User: Fold this.
Amino acid sequence: MKLLNRISRLICLSLVLALILVGCTPKTENAWQKIQDAGVITVGTSPDYPPFETVDDAGNIIGFDIDLMQAIAAEMGVTVEFKPMNFDTIVTAVQSGQVDIGMSGFSVDPERDVDFSDSYYSGGQVLLTTATAGIESAADLDGQTVAVQMATTGEKAAKTITGANIKALETFDIAILMLKNGTAKAVVADKVVAKEYVHKDGLVIVGEPLTVEDNAIVVKKGNTAVLEAVNEALAKVKASEKYEELLEKWAIK
Assistant:
């Protein structure tokens, strides 16, 4: 009788495990099929980080990431629906299925519980300051306030600055505002983003780069079919004249 009970329990356990596997596996395997059936891929983005993504005077989301994603989607045979949100919520939105993927100047970071596409741009984090702040390198920031957007690799880089008081903020716009009004002595940002503010607002980049990083698209962990489709389309775009045109258009080079 005891043997029969053990066998029964083992059979029940096996059935439960099988049901779990059957119930979970299709969610990731069918994700790409659902995108194809809908004809639309939804993309989470935080449009406050020019030239990667920003909002123009007419309220349209524009930028290098936006144009590149549209080119990628065209290769995938679908259209794009961009969903604006705070940067620190995009990964959660991808994980929960609120959006299919995230594209918002993401640097590849193993600590983020997602899969990353192949790199579409290589950059890094630098120090951005004003010409009158008296800051020439990270060594000058001991005891000073450094502003940065929260949940970014820029925040991680900022925390390596010895003695600096790090202010992690919801949006990059607030970090720039703090720099301009003097409540922060420097901002940590992607080099290409920092260059945008050098040209636009007369700010200056100082010191050596804090990091060297690759930018990539964020995909829910285990969504292999979606990841493969994105990578295949990305490779085609990068091999085309379109990619060079976008680099030139947004002064990414």
